[in-house]
Amino acid sequence: KSDAAHLVFDLQQGIGWDLATDTHIEKLNDSTLVGYRYSKGWAVDQRLYFAAVFSKPIRQFTSLQVTDTLGTTTPAASGNRLKGVVTFATKEGEVVKLKVGISPVSTTNAIANIRAELPGWNFTKTVAQADAAWNQELQK
Hints:
This protein is an alpha+beta fold. It contains 2 helices and 8 strands, in the order E-E-E-E-E-E-E-E-H-H. The strands form 2 sheets. It has a 5-stranded antiparallel beta sheet, with helices on one face. A 3-stranded antiparallel beta sheet has the order 1-7-5, with no helix packed on it. A hairpin with a 2-residue loop joins strand 2 and strand 3.
């Protein structure tokens, strides 16, 4: 139980030599964040758009650059050293679920990918469907 359960979106850090060149995150509505991460590393100009849908309303969204000590509460932020902090009020034993979609094209496509590939909140069912689809493809 908490009035301030947090989840951090770290858009600065990458894997290996990947370096963020521009990032953006914004609160689209009461349960959705969207944004992008442009980087260079294994690709000269890699662009990844994302959407994150939560199973419950966001209580507060805060964005900050890593040089900030507190950050500012804003509906959107951009920069190459960016973090987004989502805050929820949770009950005893409550689980906050998260669905993330990605796209190399746009945040709109990332949202469409969530709707097409993750229509519900049943993770076990989603895993079973993905497993069956892969097995069908691998048997060709």
